[in-house]
Specification:
Elements: E1 2-7, E2 10-13, E3 18-26, E4 31-39, E5 46-52, E6 58-60, E7 68-73, E8 78-83, E9 92-100, E10 108-109, E11 113-118
Parallel strand pairs: 2-11
Antiparallel strand pairs: 1-3, 3-8, 4-5, 4-9, 5-6, 7-8, 9-10, 9-11
Amino acid sequence: QVQLVESGGGLVQAGGSLRLSCAASGRIVTIYNTGWFRRAPGKEREWIATLAWSDGGTNVADSVKGRFTISRDITKNTVYLQMNNLKPEDTAVYYCASRRRDSYTYDYWGQGTQVTVSS
């Protein structure tokens, strides 16, 4: 099992920045990648970014590319989502999730952290 704990959400004005953290514990060696997702009120869950644990390779959704960056600190088993130039439409609950090496779906999810961007 893997446990994921997000932190770093909060209230920020438009144009501001936040850094979300996703700390992993448990059977870290089984993780293939970690992704960030968000769900805004009344909308479906949206994929934001993914980081591969083997080589740190990243992918970022076009909708946030240039503003959001995914990274990691191997020593802390933590994946970050740096969010710059935030907009009101970025308001959502943000989740991190991890996929096992032997899986094709995201197997572990964090509890979510609220990000609210005021105009």
